[in-house]
Amino acid sequence: MGDRDTKVIGYFAYRSATQIACDGNACLLAGSRSAMRRYLSISDPKNVDEHTIKKTRFGEIMNGMSSEMVNHAIVKAKSQLRTAPAARNPMARG
Fold first, then answer.
1. What gap in Å lies between CA 42 and CA 37, rounded to an integer?
2. Residue 55 and which of 14, 49, 75, 86 are 20 to 30 A apart at CA?
């Protein structure tokens, strides 16, 4: 494993394996544990203490991006993009 894979690049937060702190479709990374807590206190004030905040490394992010869970999220997002015009325009076909 190279140095770039082991270098800490930030902090992420999660409540469970499938509930990662995100803003829209983007998972959040903060520069410090305290910065992540500040974000959570604004975005999810009732559940701040239910989140685990953990250091993350570049290699972990790359492995996560290639995981089946992320692939499922990409398929779902693409599906939403295809159906969005139909939702706005009842005459459009998805």
1. 9
2. 75
Q: pLDDT of 29-47, one tens digit each?
A: 999 999 999 999 998 899 8
What average pLDDT does this structure show over 84-93? 47
pLDDT 10s digits, 5-23: 788 889 989 888 878 888 8
Measured between alpha carbons, how far is 85 from 73 in angstroms, rounded to an integer? 20
Distance CA 38, CA 42 (A): 7
> What would the two tokens of residue 87 be?
């939702």
DSSP reduced 3-state for 37: helix
Alpha-carbon distance 26 to 16, whole Å? 17
Q: d(Cα 35, Cα 29) in Å, to the nearest integer?
A: 9
CA separation for the pair 75, 62 (Å, rounded): 18
Q: Report residue 22: phi and psi, to 5°.
A: -135, 160
